[in-house]
Amino acid sequence: MRLICLSANRESFKSVKFNESGLTLIVGSKTREGQTYNGVGKSLIVELLHFCLGSSKNGEFEAKIPQWEFTLEFELLGQHHTVSRNTSKQNIMLLDNVEKNVTAFNVWMEDRLFSIPDGVKSLTYRALLPKFMRRGQKEYVEPLETSDRSDYDMLVRNAFLLGLEVHLVARKAELRDELVHVQQLRNNFKTDQLLRDFYSGGKNAAIHLGHLETQIKKLEQDREKFVVAENYFDLQNSADELSEQIANDTNTTFLFRSAVENINKSLNEQPDVPLARLQTLYGELTQAFKPESLKRLEDLSDFHRRLLTNRVARLSREKLRLLEQLKELEVTLRAKQAALDKHIQTLGQAKALDQYTALVNQIGELSAQAQKLRDYQNIDREYSNKEAVLKGKMSDEVIASNTYLEETRAVRDEHTGVFKDYVARFYPNKVAGISVNNNDGDNKTRFDLAVQIEDDSSDGINEVRIFCYDLSILSLKQGHKVGFVFHDSRLFANMDVRQRAVLFKLADEVTTRLGCQYIATLNPDFISGMEAEFTEADFQRIFTDNIVLTLKDDSAAGKLLGVQVNMHYDKK
């Protein structure tokens, strides 16, 4: 794929026509500091290219330049294509005058531009394209950087472009994810209150389970013997009432017996005095009494006899009445006692329904605890087995990866040799290379990739490292048909004059030979400082002849959009 032309539906826009091969240079005044497009528009070009090639929605474009439609002409697989996208209708791509949504367009591009193997996550057209058109400051810090992606994303994308076996990368990540998932499921049981006590309290689950099972067995035996009296509480209330009645009747019986006893005592007593005894007591005194007086004594004695006789009769009748009542009361008391004994016997043999329910609930609670411990033991055993199997597979993958690295050493050396050759043009005596080592750690990283130049912390060396790496993946053509590399002016800011001169000589040489494009935005001082490093003819051929667009900051008309628009973009 090569870029042909970037244009817009506004006359003020400065169209960018890309050279068919070799260098394409866009020059402009130095932009302001910060993450903005407030300058002449050099950095805006790369965002517009991504916009036309299916990037995510750009809110700044929609807000600041509504209804602008940008068109990119490009060649892919020998065919000329155009794609247009409107800032106010960003979900629609117009590919060769046919509408496609962004997703369909990206799929169309992916099928033609990259040979992505099946079953490898994070390898997509949009994920790989930034390796050829770096965006934002962060992607100019580290050659392998893929912006805000994960370590796995960064590894699998760079491994793909370096021609490494990405299925090894994907399998370790998948196994590691599965292993972490199993470990998390296993650990989730430990958050349960019951199980947490075992882990925090040092209890033994197997011993505790045995204790629970013994308790459950005993309670189940009690349950089997349990006789439920549905009228348990009625019986209990009746028994309480009978007890109270028996107590009252017993007291009444005691009172009756006491009354009879008192009557018996009264009957045994003889309070009257016979007339003969009176005459004996008074003796001679009776002779002094007149016959009329003696007659009165006889009457009085008769009266007392009749009174006593009446008293005895009354007491006897009362005694008989009391004995009759006592007999009835004793019969009733025996009946109540018999009823109470029966109630007590029934209550002793049976229990209330709520007591039975409490027993069943207790069995249920203990059974639930026991089952939870059994489940934990079973699942822990199952997860332990799964964990062991996964770790075994990961170990197998370590061996497979070591074997792979050993068997492909010659091919990898050939690939990494391209990078070393490019670096040697800058630093003939520095050690440089791309290392690929097997990572057998407990993580998702299959290979430890490193792109290094000795002393690469020095000014400009890191930028050389990025340039040589990007030129290498362009040259290697591993899994892609991309025919260009685009670098923003920030790549050249820390380079000295000699480094920049070597960079453009090498870029011109390699892309001309391969029939590819090296596109760069530059500040004027980056170019003028290199004149002494070239012959006049070479400077003319490499720089002057390849400047396709000059942007100026003297007025809005001289800028890329041809109008003054302040846009802030969030790419880091």
List the helices and strands and how they pair.
Elements: E1 2-8, E2 16-17, E3 22-28, H1 42-52, H2 59-64, E4 69-76, E5 79-86, E6 89-95, E7 98-101, H3 102-113, H4 125-128, H5 151-161, H6 166-188, H7 193-201, H8 205-225, H9 232-268, H10 275-282, H11 285-288, H12 291-349, H13 353-407, H14 409-426, E8 432-438, E9 447-453, H15 461-476, E10 484-487, H16 497-514, E11 517-522, H17 524-528, H18 536-542, E12 547-551
Parallel strand pairs: 3-11, 3-12, 10-11
Antiparallel strand pairs: 1-2, 1-4, 4-5, 5-6, 6-7, 8-9
Helix pairs in contact: 5-6, 6-13, 8-13, 9-12, 14-15, 15-16
Descriptive notes:
This protein has 572 residues and is an alpha/beta fold. It has 18 helices and twelve strands. The protein has helices at 42-52, 59-64, 102-113, 125-128, 151-161, 166-188, 193-201, 205-225, 232-268, 275-282, 285-288, 291-349, 353-407, 409-426, 461-476, 497-514, 524-528, 536-542; strands spanning 2-8, 16-17, 22-28, 69-76, 79-86, 89-95, 98-101, 432-438, 447-453, 484-487, 517-522, 547-551.
